Amino acid sequence: MPILAVVGTGYVGLVTGVLLADFGHTVTCVDVDAEKINKLCNGQIPIYEPGLEPIVMRNLTCGRLHFTTDIRVAVEESEVIFITVGTPPKEDGRADIQYVLHAAREIAKWMNGYKVIVNKSTSPVGTARAIKQTIHQVLHERGVNFPFDVVSNPEFLREGTAIQDFMHPYRIVIGAENPHAIERMKAVYGFCYKNEVPTIEANLETAEMIKYASNAYLAMKVTYINEIANVCEKMRADIQLVAEAMGLDQRIGPSFLKAGPGYGGSCFPKDASALIRMAEDCGESLQLVEAMIKSNQLQKLRMVDKIRDGLGDLAGKNIAILGITFKPNTDDIRESPALVILPRLVELGAKLRVYDPCGRINGERAFRDILDSIAWCGDIYEAVSDSDATVILTDWDEFRSIDFDRYESLHAGKVLFDLRNLYERQPMTEKGFLYFGVGK
Predict the structure, then answer these.
(1) Cβ–Cβ < 8 Å for 355, 379
(2) What mean pLDDT do residues 368-376 have?
(3) Of 118, 151, 224, 369, which has the highest C-beta tally within 10 A?
(4) What residues form DSSP beta bridges with 25?
């Protein structure tokens, strides 16, 4: 099996490196952040991903997994090198690939023989060829001519279920020009081939486009069902039954048909914007994707209107907020609906009592401008205590089993804005609650 290196220990890089080691590869993960590397060497995980920590410890102990800041050693000792650095959005929505190209330059600086350089960072079409050009340039400056191949191998990991997604992927996409590089990638993903995971072999540009096209489509499903939910509310229809019936159609499928306050996270918003800019650069427009982005933003603001309509004047109201991460089982709040909803509630005069199982540290940074209006709480019942209403923003499992019988003793107002449809109206009404769901 080829020896591997992973450049970048963010979410994708860490999960990729750790799980490849768990499947028997020798893997060295590299990062410029010395403090992070020191913590990883001691088994301390900088992200929240269920089940990852024991896998890290297991592979550190058996010697298959290594962490270092020394990219030279990692490159020289490895044949297959993954680039997994960030590609944050620029102000115009385009993906910034400067960190990808910097990683390529660093790899080229220390190449000592044939290497397969695998771009796993989500990058616009054309990035793989830019990597190739960058490496050629650095090798020319060094006066050497080592052979190498560049591969585009997009990731499809979901935060909170990354281990399952990596071990049992829907497909593997390999974009390459040289059959030898494809064979090396098959050796890397041998465990998937044993499980007969479908593999798409394509050119570099096709592999890069698959990632963007997939994420934009899933984001459109979320946005579509939210728009249908808004119509359902006005027409006395139940969006959950509508979505269930839709999902039984095999041409549609049940995934991403849960109505709520809008999508967020590190992928959908960024990738949809980057896809629009890629289309513009080649003289095309993606009007459907553009409308989707606008609708998703409006959905978040619509949730504020729902709360204001249900409570009336928000000035001086205490509102319990359950969940600020964009989804459960992660500490990530990037592009979370909470980033739009909470500041707007504060602007309207509300005081917030916030509880999230994992999101507080990131939340304190993100909401630093409104911290005077936020009381951070240690559990559900501290948050709802003395509140006028409860808002469920994230569908963490513990929010599915709230003990509503405790509300009176906590002097909590019996008004529930269930923005994830975790509960049904009738049982809540029987408990004396004024209930507001989404699309029903």
Answers:
(1) yes
(2) 96
(3) 118
(4) none
Domains 4-202 and 204-440 agree in fold: yes
Name the active-site residue from 267, 282, 358, 377. 267
pTM for this prediction? 0.91
Q: HSE-up of 55 (CA within 13 Å, CB side)?
A: 19
Q: Are 294 and 328 in contact (CB under 8 A)?
A: no
Annotation marks residue 267 as catalytic: yes
In this structure, are residues 56 and 15 in contact, taking their beta carbons and an 8 Å threshold?
A: no
Fold that domain 204-440 belongs to in CATH: Rossmann fold (3.40.50)
| Distances from the Cα of 324 to the Cα of 67, 271, 295, 339, 377, angstroms | 31, 21, 20, 8, 12
Q: Which structure tokens are listed for 357? A: 């199982």
Strand, helix or coil at 28? strand
196 pLDDT exceeds 90?
no
Mean pLDDT of the chain: 96
Which CATH code, of 2.60.120.10, 3.40.50.2300, 3.40.50.720, 3.30.1330.40, is assigned to 4-202? 3.40.50.720
- Spatial neighbors of 58 by CB under 8 A, at least 6 apart, are 22
